[in-house]
Amino acid sequence: MCATNEVKSQVVDLVMHRTLDEINLEEETLDELLIRIPNCRHVFTVETLDGLCHMNDYYSTDGVSGKWLGLQAPPDGFQKPPVCPTCRASITSPRYGRIFKRADLDILELNTMGRMLRALDNVCGSWQSFSKEEAEKILTAANVDPGRISSSPKEQKSRIKARAKATNKDRRITAVSVQSINPGNKEFHSVSPAVAAVWRTATKELMESYRRACDIAATRSAHVNAWDAAFSCLYNQEMERSLSDPRHAPRRPEEHAMRVARMSVGQPQPRADKRYAVEAIWATLEIRLTLAQLARTWLKVKCETRKSYPIEHRQSWGSYTTFLFATCAADAQIAFDIAKDSDSRRQMTITSLLLWRIGLERFSFNVELLQHCNRMIEERANLMTTTSAKIADTKKEMVAVLKDHLAIKRSAEKLAEEEIWLTSNFTSKAITLLTEWQKLERALRSQTFYQPVSLEEQMAIVKSFKFCEFQAPGGFLGLTGHTAHTGHFYNCPNGHTYVIEDVRSSFWCGR
């Protein structure tokens, strides 16, 4: 009423192109009510800002009178924050709180994904530049006196408990800590300090890459925290409602509360950070498998060059390497569970391959350890029985994984694509693993020396991880670059994040 003529001449109704002076303040319809944007103080009709903010995408109406009926699921994908049509300032009016807060969370989500992606690039680059051959030279050339290891039964029992706790499935969903895989850590291992110092020099870069990968795996995005908070609040409200009226409470109140809470949140649980958590755990697994190869090289060289290598040192390195494989198996299962919870079928399939590879290397090391300890004759029968069972189990699991992967409903075209992908990225790799089991069985039956497949050859088994995009000199296939992860991020209706390159390769979104 007290505005200047200049202000009154401004257009406030973009639908009918009316100025402020033409608004009838006595009426209370949406096309006559005015609202002022807090950030820039520009004025528009409520109908105009409702249209700019796409209110109908977030709230349901009766379709006739325009009366609001309640919340509805917001649109899929990342949303841009609503802005003033005059000056592009953010619209933060309380009426549009649900809309601009969703957009702010999307911005935080994109920032988190970009940060996780850059961190993974750095980890992959530093890990790929690590030279296993140079590390082996340092370890084999080291001429240190390991000394004597004096561990009391109490200390040994304490270490066993610490290692068991580290591989417990109930721990936080991330890879085991870098401290636990350090052989010089007396809380977990009994490796002598002199040998641990040489190991620390040879694996310094690798351990730093592992630490950063663990940080990435533990990162949670803003969307996930917000979704969890909303779900928890709605779940508690529904449980309180059931407890306050037991006569009308559902038969299974917990299940009912969870179902209602998921419906009330109105959108699927965000899964972007889960994708990168799985990738980060994959990276930690590859690093630990490299550490296990180095530990096997150290043990083999010392046992061959020093026939009197003390038995307690063999046991300490055998215990350390066994612990590495145990943590790999536990964390690979965690990665599989994360992929399963987020309905990422291809990640589940690839992680199954990784679990089988870990099992093969773990068993192969046990055979090698028995050879070092001259116990092959007495254990050969048990080993042959176990190997035959592993071959049978691997065949059954291969069939089960293929069946589960193709069980998801798809069009005929998509099904054909999945079959091609499985042939090149799963079946051939699984057959390679099965062949290695069969080679090991033949070696045990004929009492000949089994030469396990090299790590460089085994890396081809996980070539389908797609973050392995770089072929380094000498044929070593390592983690690097994320060249398939560049571009704008999008979200599918199931909550999976992807970029255009992902759609072209049809890799990440399992559904």
List the helices and strands and how they pair.
Layout: H1 5-8, E1 11-13, E2 18-19, E3 34-36, E4 43-45, H2 46-52, E5 59-61, E6 68-71, H3 97-129, H4 132-141, H5 153-166, H6 193-202, H7 204-217, H8 222-244, H9 253-265, H10 272-305, H11 311-341, H12 345-372, H13 376-406, H14 412-446, H15 455-459, E7 470-471, E8 477-478, E9 490-491, E10 497-498, H16 500-505
Antiparallel strand pairs: 1-2, 3-4, 5-6, 7-8, 9-10
Helix pairs in contact: 3-7, 3-10, 4-6, 4-10, 7-10, 8-9, 10-11, 10-12, 11-12, 12-13, 12-14, 13-14
- First and last CA, distance: 57 Å
Mean pLDDT: 81
Level of helix content? 55-70%
Characterize the main sheet.
2 strands, antiparallel
Please report which band the strand proportion falls in: under 5%, 5-15%, 15-25%, 25-35%, 35-45% or over 45%: 5-15%
Number of strands: 10
> Could you tell me the radius of gyration in angstroms?
30 Å
The number of domains is: 3
Total number of helices: 16
What does this structure look like?
The chain is mainly α and 511 residues long. It folds into three domains: 5-99, no CATH class; 103-223 and 263-505, no CATH class; 224-262, no CATH class. It has 16 helices and ten strands. It has helices spanning 5-8, 46-52, 97-129, 132-141, 153-166, 193-202, 204-217, 222-244, 253-265, 272-305, 311-341, 345-372, 376-406, 412-446, 455-459, 500-505; strands at 11-13, 18-19, 34-36, 43-45, 59-61, 68-71, 470-471, 477-478, 490-491, 497-498. It has a two-stranded antiparallel sheet with strand order 1-2. A hairpin with a 6-residue loop joins strand 5 and strand 6 (68-71). The longest helix has 35 residues, at 412-446. The two termini are 57 Å apart. The model is unreliable at 461-485 and 503-511 (pLDDT under 50).
